[in-house]
Amino acid sequence: MAGVMIMVLLCLSAGTMLGVQGEDPYLFFTWNVTYGTRSPLGIPQQVILINDQFPGPNINSTSNNNIVLNVFNNLDEPFLLTWSGVQQRKNSWQDGVLGTNCPILPGTNFTYHFQVKDQIGSYIYYPTTGMHRAAGGFGGLRINSRQLIPVPYADPEDDYTVILNDWYTSSHATLRKYLDDGRSLARPTGVLINGKNAKGDGKDEPLFTMKPGKTYKYRICNAGIKNTLNFRIQGHAMKLVEMEGSHVVQNVYEALDVHVGQCFSVLVTANQAPKDYYMVTSTRFNKQVLTAKGIIRYTNGKGPASPELPEAPVGWAWSLNQFRSFRWNLTASAARPNPQGSYHYGSINITRTIKLVNSASREGGKLRYALNGVSHVDPETPLKLAEYYGIADKVFKYNTIKDMPSAKIGKVVTQPNVLNQTFRNFVEIIFENHEKSMQSYHLDGYSFFAVAIEPGTWTPEKRKNYNLLDAVSRTTIQVFPKSWAAILLTFDNAGMWNIRSEMWEKTYLGQQLYVSVLSPELSLRDEYNIPDNALLCGKVKGLPKPKPYTI
């Protein structure tokens, strides 16, 4: 980060920071994406490094900062990164998914340029091409509050990022071949905390240090591809303060279930005997439990961590109850000075209900995952480019799925899956999971109100159980086996936005779709023009650029 700060200071001294956004500072990054050899589980294997780091570098930003990030792809395959949870207001051009962006070809580079507008919170970035996410290329992305906005807790002594993930010793190419050959992924080989698993032999270096009596902020994110991971710290309680951009009611937890793609911020006070302690993560909802640990060291510590690890909870009823304990902090201000609770989402009329049912198919020996019977494939021409250039009809069809699928999902169809959505409509989305395994869904471009998760199937009568007062506004929601989840949001961010399973084998094999949100005015007030440096591919390559939007 020191290099970043110097560049920002140089920009300040040169007077060039007053650019597109006036007073909002610019952060500049150059990232080299390469293969490298690491041994996260004790076996040397190929991983994806960013600037020789695994996990990748932390992005440390503040609300409204402009991020200019030049990615050099030194892999042997096309590559993209997405900034999971960054809303990219008016700017789906920077989302870094195959429905909006041409991938960065090997030996070339692309500069992302986006603003973390009106956001705070804890997020992650990760690759969206192939099975690259299983090999690395992920890391933490934090958006700090501006100094003039009060935060509902005292400044911590330090701010730490904890990246959890399940891990395979097979390469991303091998995993991809399994899926292409019609097989599903077996259980992961292990789990990691910041790319490591302490051996407990007395030689482990600490991941973090704490001064006695001081309070620290830990941002805990699950960047894995398959498993819910439970997180706890020996002898220390965790006070939950934020999740995915929302301040929450500050309940205290001994353990937290972090579902795939989710992030939590907790406060931990160094109030125990001065020695080493383990932070522990382990897989949930599997017969075989995989565990990883990392050391937190008191600065004046004398003694090793106890080999007795705190136990994880059992069963998913515990996890569901924990979800129900999460509450939006109605009086705290997030990125703007007005209290979060001043937005009364519960009193807005729903204009559309979309129920998304996940399913799997093995027809013809090929494994595919689907939503409402359609298994998405990315066309050679990104959907957003096809739409912007006026050739959508040559690339995909809109609304090939029904808002309310029939009770029995028929044969799975493999094609691009794109829904049209009316700009600024307030919409209810139901995720219904008929399978025996966990699900976790993420929506790009927005945060949503996670108003309910319940066992069984959804009916309109279930709305009486919604939390319409203080549900947390977030970006990723889990769905338990044979259960459903409901979210509410206003589609007020024009662009092409991905809804996807965070279980990456399911995403890769089609369990995702795109929502096209077009402003009727086609105005710069609602959406930015295509960037000058946008990569072009497929059917739009060589076409004349469309007339730009104006105010």
Automatic annotation (TrEMBL):
PANTHER family named in the record: MULTI-COPPER OXIDASE, OS01G0816700 PROTEIN
For this UniProt entry, the molecular function terms from Gene Ontology, in alphabetical order, are: copper ion binding; oxidoreductase activity
User: What name does the UniProt record give this protein?
Assistant: L-ascorbate oxidase homolog
Please name the InterPro entries in this protein's record.
Cu-oxidase-like_N (IPR011707), Cu-oxidase_2nd (IPR001117), Cu-oxidase_C (IPR011706), Cu-oxidase_fam (IPR045087), CuRO_1_AAO-like (IPR034273)
* Alphabetic keyword roster: Glycoprotein, Signal
In terms of domain of life, where is this protein from? Eukaryota
Question: What Pfam family is a match, any one?
Answer: Cu-oxidase
**Which family is annotated?**
Belongs to the multicopper oxidase family.
According to the record, the signal peptide region is 1-22
- Species the sequence originates in: Populus tomentosa
Q: Where is the Plastocyanin-like domain?
A: 32-147, 158-300, 381-520
